């Protein structure tokens, strides 16, 4: 009997434990933090041995294989010891994929992956396909594989999850874009992060498809130097594409296998250039697996976007309040500011991941009338925009922030929460930050 040790007793760890137990492994779950009650109960129900608030090395270093949760960096001593002993350390995505024959659509990218994943899932479900959505979103992929027999999986995959793959291969891979993010995990080398994202295509063959943004220079430059085997399906809003997707002002044209689908851009439920691209990527993937044109058209017209991503909260006295708490990097905030059409009171700040705010300058000059910094340390933001925006104030809780925004905003303005930073200084996570924003707006 093979021994599987799982590091991390959260959603992916416990899901993997359930699948491994079902497949006859001896399973041990170890978490340095505290395992939540709901997960403890599941482990006890399945009679899986576990520990928390420690890693007992003798119980870990005797593993045949280790599954580590994406939040654990490779640099820690325990992982280094496992590697020295040549014990494979893999991700949940790698482990679970061995136990399903379902067709996999895998989606990665610095931004847009959640929206694209949800949209692909929505289109496939609308066609009546038996589909599971997992990965970096929703329920554990391994748990789904253990409990269901889906024909298709739509997986949102982070770079951390891709770092732990060996044989994992999606039939269709989507790479939405690349911008510097999480560089603290990649020795502060952008090329290491890019290489990690491209692992989504490394096991693909000529029978598979690779959908990507042809307007993203970092991505296309990398692809020229490191070609992939899969059939390339680019999409663009800057030039025409023969095989793939492109958009002119009013139309989207998607061509796969000599068959073309046309849609009007004004029929899409999602606004902004970035969402036009997300829609092209999702529609191309759906068309490649044979979804009917009518289903794709209807699905992109009635899709409700991801929570905390450019989510319209309320309009109060002709001022629009938008929750974009999921914008945890500069690139995501760029898209948010780009999609706003009116003078903006911008709420920004949090835990800076080595941000460079230069790319936001033109948009801030053009659209932002006031900035509210919501973070423990706002020095960098004040230095970056102090000469560009006349009104910059600091706030330290959400209720105060929203009250200040309410006073600053005038008829026809937008109040935009798009932090460009992680949330852990003042909030549990970006969802908590977004929910507090919505509650504060509703209490005005």
TrEMBL record:
Where is the major localization of this protein? cytoplasm
What Pfam families does UniProt report for this protein, alphabetically?
Answer: Mur_ligase_C (PF02875), Mur_ligase_M (PF08245), MurD_N (PF21377)
Q: What does this protein do?
A: Cell wall formation. Catalyzes the addition of glutamate to the nucleotide precursor UDP-N-acetylmuramoyl-L-alanine (UMA).
Reaction(s) catalysed (UniProt annotation): UDP-N-acetyl-alpha-D-muramoyl-L-alanine + D-glutamate + ATP = UDP-N-acetyl-alpha-D-muramoyl-L-alanyl-D-glutamate + ADP + phosphate + H(+)
Q: Where in the cell is it found?
A: Cytoplasm
Q: What is its EC number?
A: 6.3.2.9
- Which residues are listed for ATP binding in this entry? 109-115
Q: Does the keyword Zinc apply?
A: no
The family note in this entry says: Belongs to the MurCDEF family.
Q: What is this protein called?
A: UDP-N-acetylmuramoylalanine--D-glutamate ligase
Q: What class of enzyme is it?
A: ligase
Supply the InterPro entries for this chain: Mur-like_cat_sf, Mur_ligase_C, Mur_ligase_C_dom_sf, Mur_ligase_cen, MurD
Keyword ATP-binding in annotation: yes
Chain ranges of the Mur ligase central domain? 107-285
Q: Which SUPFAM superfamilies match?
A: MurCD N-terminal domain (SSF51984), MurD-like peptide ligases, catalytic domain (SSF53623), MurD-like peptide ligases, peptide-binding domain (SSF53244)
A molecular function (GO) held by this record is: ATP binding
User: Which biological process terms from the Gene Ontology are attached to this UniProt entry?
Assistant: cell division; cell wall organization; peptidoglycan biosynthetic process; regulation of cell shape
- Top-level taxon of the source organism: Bacteria
* Gene label: murD
């Amino acid at each position: 009997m093979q021994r599987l040790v799982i590091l991390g007793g959260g959603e992916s760890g416990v899901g993997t434990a359930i699948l491994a137990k079902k497949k006859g492994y001896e399973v041990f779950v170890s978490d340095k933090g505290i395992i939540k009650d709901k997960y403890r109960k599941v482990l006890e129900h399945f009679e899986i041995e576990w520990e928390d608030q420690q890693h007992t090395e003798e119980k870990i270093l005797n593993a045949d294989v280790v599954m580590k949760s994406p939040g654990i960096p490779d640099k820690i001593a325990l992982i280094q010891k496992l590697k020295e002993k040549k014990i494979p350390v893999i991700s949940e995505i790698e482990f679970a994929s061995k136990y399903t024959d379902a067709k996999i659509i895998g989606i990665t990218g610095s931004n847009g992956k959640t929206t694209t994943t949800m949209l692909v899932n929505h289109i496939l479900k609308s066609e009546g396909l038996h589909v599971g959505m997992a990965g970096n979103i929703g329920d554990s992929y391994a748990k789904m594989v253990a409990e269901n027999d889906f024909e298709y999986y739509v997986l949102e995959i982070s770079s951390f999850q891709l770092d732990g793959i060996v044989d994992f291969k999606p039939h269709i891979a989507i790479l939405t874009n690349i911008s510097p993010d999480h560089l603290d995990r990649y020795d502060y080398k952008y090329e290491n992060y890019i290489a990690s994202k491209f692992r989504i295509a490394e096991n693909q063959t000529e029978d598979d498809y690779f959908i990507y943004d042809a307007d993203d220079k970092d991505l296309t430059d990398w692809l020229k130097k490191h070609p992939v085997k899969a059939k390339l399906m680019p999409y663009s809003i800057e030039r025409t594409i023969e095989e793939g997707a492109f958009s002119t002002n009013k139309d989207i044209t998607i061509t796969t296998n000599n068959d073309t689908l046309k849609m009007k851009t004004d029929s899409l439920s999602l606004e902004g250039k970035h969402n036009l691209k997300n829609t092209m990527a999702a529609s191309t993937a759906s068309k490649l697996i044979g979804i009917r044109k009518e289903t794709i058209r209807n699905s992109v017209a009635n899709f409700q976007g991801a929570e905390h991503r450019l989510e319209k909260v309320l309009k109060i006295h002709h001022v629009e309040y938008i929750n974009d708490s999921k914008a945890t990097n500069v690139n995501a905030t760029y898209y948010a500011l780009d999609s706003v059409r009116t003078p903006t009171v911008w709420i920004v700040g949090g835990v800076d991941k080595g941000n460079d705010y230069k790319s936001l300058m033109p948009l801030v000059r053009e659209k932002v009338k006031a900035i509210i910094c919501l973070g423990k340390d706002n020095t960098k933001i004040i230095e970056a925009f102090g000469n560009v925006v006349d009104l910059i104030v600091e706030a330290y809780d959400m209720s105060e922030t929203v009250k200040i925004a309410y006073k600053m905003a005038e008829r026809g303005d937008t109040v935009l929460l798009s932090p460009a930073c992680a949330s852990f200084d003042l909030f549990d996570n970006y969802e908590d930050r977004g929910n507090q924003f919505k509650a504060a707006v509703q209490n005005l």
